Amino acid sequence: LCPTRAPGDAEALAGQHAGADLILAVGGDGSLRDVAAGLAGSRGTAALGLIPAGTGNDFARAASIPLRTADALAVA
Predict the structure, then answer these.
(1) Which of 8, 19, 21, 42 can pair with 15 through a Cys bridge, CB separation 3.0 to 4.6 Å?
(2) Does residue 57 carry a pLDDT above 90?
(3) In sequence order, which residues have a C-beta less than 8 Å from that of residue 64 and are 6 or more positions away?
């Protein structure tokens, strides 16, 4: 569990943990973008999952990721 506290934290943390099997971004579209950017800038092989917790959750809706946390975890 790596909470973010400032802009840029999610991207940096994702890059630092890119060797994990799975990284779950908990948040909305902006959080997902930041984590994806951190993974893209690394040489890691982590899969990226999303637990929707944002305001609009546009990506989650478009990708058919359930909005209920337990259901999203099951998909991840």
Answers:
(1) 42
(2) yes
(3) none
